[in-house]
Amino acid sequence: MISPVMPTYARTNFGFERGEGCWVIDEEGNRYLDAGAGIAVSCLGHAHPRLVEVLTQQAGRLWHTSNLYRIPNQERLAELLVDHSFADTVFFNNSGAEAVETAVKMARRYWHSIGEPERNEIITLEHAFHGRTLGMISAAPSAKLVEGFAPLLPGFRQVQAGEIEEVDAALGHNTAAVLVEPVLGEGGIIPLSDSYLKALRQLCDNRGVLLILDEIQCGMGRTGKLFAHEWAGISPDIMAVAKGIGGGFPLGACLATEKAAGGMVAGTHGSTYGGNPLACAVGCAVLEIVSDPGFLQQVSRTAGYLRQGLEGVISSHPDVFDSVRGSGLMLGIKCKVKNMSVIESGYDQRVLLVPAGDNVVRVLPPLNITIDEVSTLVRKIDRAAGNLAGSSDA
Prior knowledge:
- The chain has helices at 37-40, 49-59, 72-83, 96-113, 134-139, 143-146, 164-170, 194-207, 277-290, 293-316, 339-348, 371-388; strands at residues 16-20, 23-26, 31-34, 89-93, 121-125, 156-159, 175-180, 183-184, 190-191, 210-214, 238-241, 252-256, 321-327, 330-335, 351-352, 354-356, 360-363.
- The chain is of the alpha/beta class.
- The protein has 2 domains: 50-290, 3-Layer(aba) Sandwich (Aspartate Aminotransferase, domain 2), CATH 3.40.640.10; 294-388, Aspartate Aminotransferase, domain 1 (Alpha-Beta Complex), CATH 3.90.1150.
């Protein structure tokens, strides 16, 4: 008999009932160090006092009106995002997949609005992930995402990540935009080099193509800059963000230049819940904290300490781990054993980690994790690996 909750997830058996900072507590009172942060969502940890205060205040005032009316919190958050980014304008969504869907629609609409509707193809990268809507699995059609969901939507072409020549060869008279994650998340924590991103920006400029960045996982301070593309010194034309932007409250956004958004006039797109007063109140508080230069500097310092600790763990367990890669507090450990074996061994140490492609374990703690908590995290991963060394999983 099917369960009341549709069985589309391979869930563990624990259920968590509350959280405190970087820790979550299960129904029996056991404390787990959350090094997954809800898959890079809880960027300020659990029950952050400022976020609780803002959400509680807004909940007592107004929850929802729809986008038939002005939403002051939405306007405030849009202004903050514009002030802290390349963008001139913002459309609010409820999730990351919706934000990338908006980006794709915007790119196609731009070409339509200037009389070139045939320019509707989007170039994407192999091993990318942009969400699970039908449109986004068509954009990144890995076997596990698309099986049983055919026919996929046309208008997408994939090329190999990191090879600028492949992008150049794929561009044609029907190309509307190139869509990439600066750090591939689900694909295995694969950073695109600064030189590649610079070359991609230059190529798009030379060929008159829009550049879309998916910073759903790598944005909002995760790499030590507010947005990951800042390390390369470039700007996109359109960018999708979500996950950390709401600190755990469902929120997404699509940011764009005035030029790229030129075709998005009244009636071209919409969302019933997108940018509602509750979500945007929390989003404003998150952005005010995360955009602070001192906060971002602390993320980079903490990230250096964590990476150094993980390098030591890898050296101590060469039969279990291969290497560490990533940027800031978006790190991946390439495993020699099954990545799920490492994660399950971590459960025994009461630490939560996240799997990714290419047999990688993701380490994505809240951005405000302390140095002492990083030391605890490293010890727990070391013990988890030690329990696997020499086992049947190794």
